[in-house]
Amino acid sequence: MEKPLLLLNLFMEGMQKKDEKAAAQYRQEIVQLELDSEAAVIAKYRLGFHTLYQEKKLDEAIAIFKEVAACGIHCDDFFQSQITYAICLWSKGKHELAIFELRKMLSQVKPQTIHEVLGLDYLSIFLRDTNAPQQEITKLNGQRINSLNALLQNEKDVEAQAPLQLELAAALEERGQPGDLEQARQTLQKVINKSSSTNKSIASAAQTALQQLNKTK
User: Fold this and answer.
1) How far apart are CA 108 and CA 30, in angstroms?
2) pTM confidence score
3) CATH number, domain 1-93
4) Is 106 helix (H, G, I), strand (E, B) or coil?
């Protein structure tokens, strides 16, 4: 196991055992890591994630995400860090910077990947909330739809398809072009039909979304 991942495991073990001294030591070693490998990116991003969601220390987490988001080592945790960093900036009221960071991330990520979809999803939300031109938001939703369709074509597992289909229905509803709402309804019905016996939470989410969509004229 590479050293950064070993440090991460030791940190998490210290937290689980409530060994504050050991956890603090390994935290500091992770913070001091050079971001020169995918393993280091994983260790720092997940330390930031723990700092944010378990310890509720937003500013400390932002500092970690900012460093990882700038490192340029393209891997899942690098792109996830860029997205999380933008979300944290948004929560701090730094809306223009959050939008800038998402645009930068989208210029680096490969098209038709889940990270592109997530980046487009949040960027669409942020632009709507800042009253950006509808034409730009519609274009983004078109990109989301294209990427989601590509992901669905390559995904053979029915359970793995369901959350992608939920996201596709949301993107279609938000774009709202002729035929989009009906396609969204059909997509949600597919999720309900396929997930009712295997994933009741997904089926319930699809049912709720369909009920809301049916109220749309």
Assistant:
1) 25
2) 0.90
3) 1.25.40.10
4) helix
